[in-house]
Amino acid sequence: MSEQQRPPQSQEPPGTTAEMTPRPKDEMADYEGRGLLTGRKALVTGGDSGIGRAVAVAFAKEGADVAIAYLSEHEDAEHTVALVEDAGRRAVAVPGDLSEEAACRHAVATTVEQLGGIDLLVNNIARQRPVDSLAEVSTEEWEATFRTNVHSYFWCTRAALEHMPDGSAIINTGSVNGLRGNRSLLAYATTKGAVHIFTKSMAQALLDRRIRVNCVAPGPVWTPLIPATMPPEKTESFGSQAPMDRVAQPDEIAPSFVFLASERLSGYFTGQVLAPVGGETHPG
Questions:
Q1: Is 246 left (phi over 0), alpha (psi -120 to 50) or beta?
Q2: Residues carrying an active site annotation
Q3: Residues near 141 by Cβ (< 8 Å), separated by ≥ 6?
Q4: Element (H or E) spanning 108, and its range?
Q5: Contact 215, 174 (CB under 8 A)
Q6: Which residues, at least 6 apart from 155, have a Cβ–Cβ distance to it below 8 Å?
């Protein structure tokens, strides 16, 4: 089965890589680092699988030690840790529900303790649920989506800034849905719009510390979030809405994070939303 042939499938949230057919390309197997992040210490939330895993491995191959924070997908997290260690870097796995402030502070504190500091933060975790109308979105669902997709970014950033030296970098994961909206992902799209504005605002607020804050806003990407949140019949055609007529793989998105993390490559970038969206030329 090719990477673009997907049978209808579903999982219970938060989803795992092992149950996906076909498995996503998220190990950066053919990626060759150039020492762009040598000596850096990173925390990647949602780093157990999908985009987070690919970013963690790419950072490691560029010379960074990496901590990954995740909810409860222990098997996926263990595999990501092994991939980072195979790249010759230190890896730390921190389980916990980052929709709670205490867990965010714990993830940052563990990163600092185990890796000796933090100078790269990737806020990446996300929650979504497709609906047919706003009436289907309960107050509890709305608040839970904001706690995961926005509050955790705020809490992790605030905690990390207590330890980050001047010249660090923060990268948030946005979405094409936050650029142009999505009628079936009302709460999710709204939170991603908030992430984009949070990025721009924090970039302005941290100029005096030379801490660059940017965002990657991907189009459709094949990750465990998709079968864990979408109806089975939609997973089969997921990605066909993009002009390129295909879904992206996490390995295709991770280099954007490397670019924004590297002072050498993007030292004049802050407050930007980089959008790998498969051919949409006017996403927002």
A1: beta
A2: 188
A3: 129, 187
A4: helix 101-115
A5: yes
A6: 98, 101, 104, 105
CA-CA-CA-CA torsion for 52, 99, 163, 110, nearest 10 degrees?
-70
Cβ atoms of 264 and 54 within 8 Å: the answer is no
Indicate the pTM of the whole model. 0.94
* Angstrom distances, CA of residue 137 to CA of 11, 130, 263: 21, 9, 41
Q: How many C-beta neighbours within 10 Å does residue 280 have?
A: 17
97 DSSP β-pair partners: none
275 half-sphere exposure, CB direction, 13 A CA radius: 20
Q: One digit per residue, pLDDT tens: the chain, 284 residues?
A: 444 568 888 888 888 888 888 889 999 999 999 999 999 999 999 999 999 999 999 999 999 999 999 999 999 999 999 999 999 999 999 999 999 999 999 999 999 999 999 999 999 999 999 999 999 999 999 999 999 999 999 999 999 999 999 999 999 999 999 999 999 999 999 999 999 999 999 999 999 999 999 999 999 998 888 888 888 888 877 888 899 989 999 999 999 999 999 999 999 999 999 999 999 887 55
Please name the helix (run of DSSP H) or strand (run of DSSP E) that holds residue 266, with its range, or none: helix 263-266
Q: In what order do the strands lie in the sheet with 212-216?
A: 91-95, 65-70, 41-45, 120-123, 169-173, 212-216, 273-274
Instruction: Write the CA distances from 192 to 124, 175, 231, integer angstroms.
Output: 11, 6, 21
